[in-house]
Amino acid sequence: MALWSDPPIMPINRQVARYIPRVDLLLMKITFPQILISLSSLLLAVVTIVFLTQSPAQFGSASLLFRALVFNIAIVATLVAIYPVNPFFDSGPRIYGIVVCLPAVIPAFIYFLYLLPKQAGEGITAEQLQSQLITDSSSNGIIEVGFRYPIYTPTISVKNRELFTKQVNIFFRMTDANGNNALFRGVRSQIFNSGLSVEATVQGMLSNNSGYLFNPLQLPPNHDVSGRVVFIISNLEDGADFTEALGKASQVQFELRDPENGQLLLEFPLNRI
Fold it and tell me: How far apart are CA 178 and CA 82, in angstroms?
């Protein structure tokens, strides 16, 4: 006679049924109106998430309370979409809303209204990453612009450390040995009543390329914006003259200015070609 025996093994399906709600039982309880509500909520969640990821500048222009509400829309919509297959489904929508949905919206309010203002910095930071020159006379052959003017397209990176989206215009200033200044504004994204101007033509040729940035730059909060800014060097005739002028200049720099009043927000040095 054995002194001990193995404990009885319960069937796997009984153990699963004891601790985990059976999916087939949940599916049997789902009604057609609940399916419509779930699909609508899922669509709302997807649209909200796409807006948050694809429109950071617009989202960053809104108040902190509005941002928290929009973020919570995506959370609540997701929870409503999965409600029919959630273990709390049996407890009813009211209990589900109090126990599951209500606690889920609290972190967003804490983050946007309390933590984010403490983490935010001040001002803008910027740096030049690369230096490129586009011109008919240059030897790089990147693009044929159809003009004798050099097209200077440096790659820059700008970061907005503040709480809200900021707009800036970027300029390029070159000071020669005699103290004479030449100031060039970056090509604009919208040019009204331009006719057949050089700026409008260059903007039209390069605007389809997502790698270029045009004034005014849209800077979402706590985001890095990188790309090639376009300057038309209209006081010179070819790339060789521009490269020579840069070499002889006593000071060359980029300037970020407020589009409305022209206030200087930041200046940072230019890396020579």
Answer: 71
